[in-house]
Design brief:
The chain is extended and about 130 Å long. About 2% of the residues have low confidence. The chain is built from 32 helices and four strands. The protein has 656 residues and is mainly alpha-helical.
Length: 656
């Protein structure tokens, strides 16, 4: 069978043939050798047309396949027209980034942290302009102690234009939390530089400048504040005048501050803002009669408002005018003493200036009126800690702990931290110090709390413990200048103490070698608590159901630190858990449980038994707290879950 001859033609009109689909056709041909035969003609123009049609069909079909593949995902912002229309292609990457960001944010809401971080990182690589995603991812970085990555991520958000006032405020807030003043100021400068190119954003720029001035004052850089205020075109505004006065006072130039306020008063007249500034300026300048007149002016603006009275009391104490301050305090109680909320308002500022006597006066008044004494005790505790009166602080802390009526984890953690801190200040033993450092190591504390801890420990003469706390704090806040300064100071202090100790050793050895031999005799007696006697006394107290007495015996034992204590530590810790549960001391129970539970199987089973025993004895709240603490230490621990299920308590809220 002979194949037909194939002939290529441009179009079908040039050849008479039986065409099919405009692409090919058969025609009759005549040959001198073969005679009549059939030939195949192919239209080049038809082939090109069909090729074009197939390419277009493949284009739309391919786009459909891609869209179908994308749309099967839970998060997809890409539409079919975005894939088909070339004018939309530039948006596809952005839309895929937005979808990944939405998926990541929902992952955070559902506590899928790792998956959420991965999706947000992928989304920001495609759509870096999303400031909300940057903030969300940065907060997770900070939570997992990756502050440098968070800082780089947030700083990079300004590369895509001004991100908005909310973004600037949140970034500055994170910088303030870590007291990273350089980052705070650099953020303000970048934002103000971008706002300078945007019309109609003057008020927003002014707000950011105010934040910068405030942080410069907090960082102890008043000279820069004065320079910026002088260069500000709107420095006649009240807010900038106030910053000018505050910077003069911070620079120890009270006479100039008084002159600045008086000039402002002549222009504007007296108002509460001017009167407040005058009171402080007169106090620091030593012009107390003028200060008293300004206090009366401030009170006259709002005679029924307690704030001017509080401000006047504080300024009088700061000026050393105790007689006038005490008289003003009695007047305050006479006017506002029937309102517990107003009386509480005075306690916190008194604690800030470390005045114990007026706080005790407030406590006496609150006790007479039947008010809750906890806020006043907390203020007094702060004063005793600042003054280094550890015994008084311990007594007040025990009063606070006894008055706690909640098992809220944050309150329990606060009580545990304060208890560990005061014990470390009172007791130089290794056990008291390690309890505090263990607590700090297991938690990411706010920088303010870390600084207060270090300050208290240094005041109590515990430089080694303070140095350990700084090590943990610098792991969370690596760029904080204050922590670095304190670290260097403590390193020098510890090195000097070690050098003195090393130098003293040869002297002691030399004296021992040259000293005449002492007559043989019994060594000085040291009071030691016998193991047998201790447990016998403990059993007697248990028989009498004197649980408080048993706890006192254990405390005395820890202070005595007999040689056998270490071997019986686990047993005694278990007893502390049970006894604190029986007396209802939730904070002490939480502390003892955190020390006792370490993942050991036997300890965990013993804790389950203690929880069951407490619940059966009627101490249901402490029993549930112990079971919940066990679940926090060992998530999904079956015996603890079964125990809570028996009591009809859900364990979902206590999983870490």
């Amino acid at each position: 069978m002979a194949f037909p001859k194939i002939k290529l033609v441009w179009g079908g009109a040039r050849l008479q043939a039986n065409w099919r689909l405009g692409l090919f056709g058969f025609y009759e041909r005549t040959s001198s050798l073969r005679g009549r035969s059939t030939g195949l003609a192919i239209s080049v123009r038809g082939a090109l047309a069909w090729l074009g049609v197939l390419m277009v069909a493949a284009y739309f079909a391919g786009a459909g396949v891609i869209w179908f593949w994308l749309d099967r995902r839970p998060y997809n912002f890409v539409t079919y027209p975005d894939l088909v229309l070339p004018t939309h292609w530039a948006n596809v990457t952005k839309l895929r980034g937005q979808a990944a960001i939405a998926e990541g944010l929902d992952g955070f809401k559902n506590h899928k942290w790792r998956e959420g971080m991965m999706r947000l990182s992928a989304g920001l690589s495609r759509y870096p302009q999303d400031s909300n995603a940057r903030l969300a991812l940065a907060r997770v970085y900070i939570a997992v102690n990756q502050r440098k990555q968070a800082k780089a991520l947030l700083t990079g958000g300004f590369a895509w234009g001004y991100p908005g006032a909310g973004y600037v405020r949140d970034v500055c807030g994170l910088a303030a939390d870590s007291e990273d003043y350089d980052w705070f100021i650099a953020t303000c400068d970048t934002a103000m530089g971008q706002l300078a190119t945007l019309p109609g954003r003057t008020a927003e720029r002014r707000d950011i400048l105010q934040q910068k001035l405030a942080v410069l004052l907090a960082a102890g850089r008043p000279d820069e504040v004065l320079r910026l205020v002088a260069a500000e075109p709107e420095n006649g505004r009240a807010v900038f005048r106030e910053f000018n006065v505050m910077a003069l006072l911070a620079s120890a130039r009270p006479a100039e501050a008084v002159a600045a306020v008086e000039a402002w008063r002549k222009e504007r007249g007296v108002d509460p803002q001017v009167a407040r500034l005058q009171i402080r300026a007169f106090r620091e300048a030593g012009r107390f009669d003028d200060m008293e007149r300004s206090i009366e002016e401030l009170r006259a603006f709002a005679p029924t408002d307690p704030q001017p009275y509080i401000y006047g009391i504080i300024q009088r104490f700061l000026a050393g005018r105790r007689t006038e301050a005490d008289r003003a305090l009695e007047n305050f109680l006479l006017r506002f003493g029937g309102s517990p909320g107003v009386v509480r308002m005075l306690a916190a500022p008194l604690a800030e200036i470390n005045e114990s006597a007026p706080i005790e006066r407030l406590m006496a008044h609150a006790s007479d009126q039947g008010f809750d004494l906890t806020p006043f005790r907390q203020a007094l505790l702060r004063v005793w800690l600042h003054q280094g009166d550890w015994v008084a602080a311990w007594d007040v802390f025990n009063d606070i702990k006894a008055s706690l009526k909640t098992s809220e984890p944050s309150v329990m953690a606060w009580a545990e931290l304060i208890g560990c801190m005061i014990k470390a200040a009172l007791d130089p033993s290794e056990g008291a110090q390690s309890r505090l450092t263990d607590f700090v190591r297991e938690r990411q504390l706010p920088l303010k709390t870390d600084r207060e801890l270090v300050t208290v420990l240094r005041r109590a003469g515990r430089p080694a413990t303070a140095r350990t706390v700084i090590t943990f704090a610098q792991g969370v806040y690596p760029e904080n200048a204050t922590l670095e300064t304190w670290r260097k100071e403590l390193d020098r202090e510890l090195a000097a103490a070690q050098a003195v100790e090393q130098a003293a050793k040869p002297v002691v050895a030399s004296r021992a070698a040259t000293a005449p031999a002492a007559p043989a005799g019994p060594a000085p007696a040291r009071e030691v608590i016998s193991e047998t006697v201790f447990f016998k006394q403990l059993a007697e107290s248990e028989k009498a159901k004197d649980f408080e007495g048993e706890l006192r015996q254990i405390l005395d034992l820890r202070l005595a630190r007999p040689d056998w204590l270490e071997a019986r530590q686990e047993e005694i810790l278990g007893e502390e858990i049970r006894l604190n549960g029986r007396v209802g001391d939730l904070a002490a129970l939480h502390l003892a449980a955190s020390l006792y539970l370490n993942g050991d199987k036997n300890r965990s089973l013993r804790a389950v038994g203690l929880a069951r025993e407490l619940h059966a004895a009627g101490c249901k709240e402490t029993g549930m707290l112990l079971a919940q603490e066990l679940l926090r230490k060992i998530p999904n621990y079956p015996p603890a879950k079964r125990l809570l299920a028996e009591w009809g308590v859900s364990d979902e809220t206590v999983q870490p």
